[in-house]
Write a structure and sequence with these properties.
Distance between the termini: 52 Å
Radius of gyration: 21 Å
Number of helices: 13
CATH topology of the largest domain: D-amino Acid Aminotransferase, Chain A, domain 1
CATH architecture of the largest domain: 2-Layer Sandwich
Shape: globular
Number of domains: 4
CATH superfamily of the largest domain: ATP-grasp fold, B domain
Helix content: 25-40%
Structural class: alpha+beta
Number of strands: 24
């Protein structure tokens, strides 16, 4: 079933074995996941006056400073359900898409437990690229033209007869690695063989999309059926190195306050994309009940959808949630129970975060390097891949830390972040020096 790592003088029930906890009157929350996104969620919950105890499964070294880390995998539905029952969890919040895709929300609801996240059927808006494209086509949501294939030869013939670049997407979850922008036929052949012949990501189809141009941005919304509550817009930086060079990663930094997006742009994206998508999912019989992430692009022909995700983005969550002034427990609980709530209130400030990653990421990298001077950092730090070894904080993943700062202007937030990042001492970390460069060009 797993082990829980409690704070001093506190314990919990594991597998039905009762271990007495200090009495408390507040709510108990279980957060599922163990990265920077989940640390941001835990941090936001820790600011709620309603929340007394927070568990996180599996958590990480940084999360363990604000919550009880529980040694359960985020896809262990049976174990997580038993833990929630044993420890009288009032609300569970799901972070990763993998947890949603295995039906954890369905299982918790069937057991009568409150959980924030989409059902397995609703998660198809992320777990199946073809489902999402069909949905957008049917309900007139602007996106790139596409065709889907399961046969390698048919896919190759189609790609060969069309202009490059071509966007090739594996129709399923691929941990952010199932998208290739092929610049020529050689790259297209390799990507299609990878997905349809070698089945690198598993059995599945491939969606071939038209290539769009323009700046990308992220639009996250809390969604409960037809109710859509927007969050501040943000922009992620996928490439590993300065100048948007190098391989795609899970994200090397993000910021809020996008100068290239007007109020009219945001209104269009909200009404014609995010709200339409929520209404479409209701019409299809699989309403959303969590976070809808719109990966959008401002093209010369207008704003279009690059992708939908069925959960908080990472690293966008780390820069967005610190700006929330409303009680996040109220929002999570309202969405989980289908109760209408007031629109969240957001602080009018700029937020910027820089990711520190292990050298070699997103390829092979080593773990276990000591991270020093963390006590000198005067900014929020979201732990993404850390652990404690012999009482020393060490690297334990590809993306390791994210330093986040706020300011009355983006320039001030950026200046503070890089000043604080420079204080961290580790022999095996690198980071980009130009996060938010689009805003200053």
């Amino acid at each position: 079933m797993g082990l829980v790592y409690p704070l001093p003088s506190q314990n919990a029930s594991i597998g039905g074995k009762e271990i007495k906890l200090e009495s408390c009157l507040g709510k108990t929350v279980l957060v599922i996941g163990g990265g920077g996104r989940e640390h941001a969620i835990v941090d936001a919950l820790s600011r709620s006056p309603q929340v007394e105890k927070i568990y996180c499964a599996p958590g990480n070294a940084g999360i363990g400073q604000q919550a009880f880390n529980v040694a359960l995998k985020d896809t262990d539905v049976e174990g997580l359900l038993a833990f929630a029952k044993d420890n009288q969890v009032d609300l569970t919040v799901v972070g990763p898409e993998a947890s949603l895709a295995v039906g954890i929300v369905d299982a918790f609801r069937a057991a009568g437990l409150q959980i924030f996240g989409h059902t397995k059927a609703a998660t198809a808006i992320e777990s199946s690229k073809e489902f999402a494209k069909r949905l957008m086509e049917k309900y007139d949501i602007p996106t790139a033209g596409y065709k889907a294939f399961s046969d390698y030869d048919e896919a190759l013939a189609y790609v060969s007869a069309r202009p490059f670049p071509a966007v090739l997407k594996y129709d399923g979850l691929a941990a952010g690695k199932g998208v290739v922008i092929a610049q020529n036929l050689k790259e297209a052949k390799a990507a299609l063989a990878d997905m349809l012949l070698d089945h690198t990501f598993g059995e599945g189809r491939v969606v071939v999309e038209d290539f769009l141009t323009g700046p990308e941005f992220s639009f996250l919304c809390f969604v409960d059926g037809n109710r859509v509550y927007p969050m501040p817009l943000s922009q992620d930086h996928k490439r590993a190195f300065d100048g948007d060079k190098g391989p795609n990663t899970g994200g090397m930094g993000a910021y809020t306050g996008l100068p290239f997006i007007s109020e009219e742009d945001k209104e269009f994206a909200y009404k014609e994309i995010m709200c339409k998508a929520a209404e479409a999912m209701v019409a299809e019989g699989c309403p959303l009940s969590g976070v809808l992430y719109g990966g959008l692009m401002k093209t010369p022909q207008g704003i279009k959808v690059i992708e939908f995700n069925a959960r908080f983005g990472d690293p966008e969550t780390e820069v967005v949630l610190p700006l929330l002034e409303s009680d996040i427990y109220d929002i999570f609980e309202a969405v989980a129970t289908g109760r209408e709530t007031e629109a969240p209130v957001w602080r009018k400030a700029f937020s910027l975060g820089v990711v520190l990653a292990s050298k070699g990421y997103p390829g092979s990298y080593q773990k276990g390097f000591a991270i020093k001077n963390m006590d000198q950092v005067d900014a929020r730090v979201a732990h993404m891949g850390t652990a404690f070894k012999d009482d020393q904080l060490v690297t334990n993943g590809g993306r390791v830390l994210m330093v986040i700062a706020e300011g009355p202007s983006l320039a001030q937030a950026r200046e503070k972040v890089y000043r604080e990042v420079a204080k961290i001492d580790c022999d095996n970390l690198f980071y980009r020096h130009d996060i938010a460069h689009c805003a200053f060009e």
